[in-house]
Amino acid sequence: MRAIFLGTADGHTSARREHSGILIQTPETSILLDCGAAAARFLLHKKIEADVPEILWISHMHSDHNGQVSSLIQSLWLRTRRAPLHVFGPAEVLMAMKDWLEKCLLFPELIGFPIHWHAIKPGKPHVHGQFTFTAFPTQHLHSLASHFKRAYPNTCFDCYGVLLEYEGKRYVYSADLAHPSELAPVLKGGKVNALLCELTHFPERDLFQEVAQHPVQSVWITHYPDHLVRREAELKLIAREEKYRGEVHLMHDRVAHEI
Ligand SMILES: [Zn+2]
To answer: What domains lie within the chain, and their CATH numbers?
Structure first.
């Protein structure tokens, strides 16, 4: 399975790096995990056909995770895509996205390909082709919710990471977390081949302390601040100090990896 990290920056604007987006490609299908990076430009530049991605996963409502959705849809429309696009995410996120596409004049009758909206429920496996998706909740927006939910009841404060199962292997995308301990329920469920993990909302050491307790084969770090760009060696050292024995990779924009 191939993973291309379209953007590795966190919520801060980076002069050199894009916001969140991981393109997963298998021989049969493709999944875009979050859409905060300029996915449309990347796909065109790499001459990747307009049927990619087949699936879009949106973890939560922060713009660095969904701000490029309408640009992507507009691009796929103008590139005359015909294949359906399957969008997965929290129910209220999907409602907001659907509404936003209408506001952006991207009407279902106009764009030439159907969008199938799949509202996900945490803990409930959803089979799609050779993939099984199981969402898990994170506490990334809990603190914001405690301050603003009452005043903004129509805003979605859910954030979901996802366990992807494919050909007997398990892959985990953290989405955004409040703390890595939120990964424990999904990481302890069996060997994880690759953990695609953010590293901006908690101390670096806390991530490795957590993964050291679980059968995680490799950690692929994304969604991290600019000051970490050249510190992969230091992160590996911290991982060893915390007794994490698996691989540690600091991702860079637009580089493809077999995971
Ligand atoms: Zn966020």
So the answer is: 2-258 (3.60.15.10)
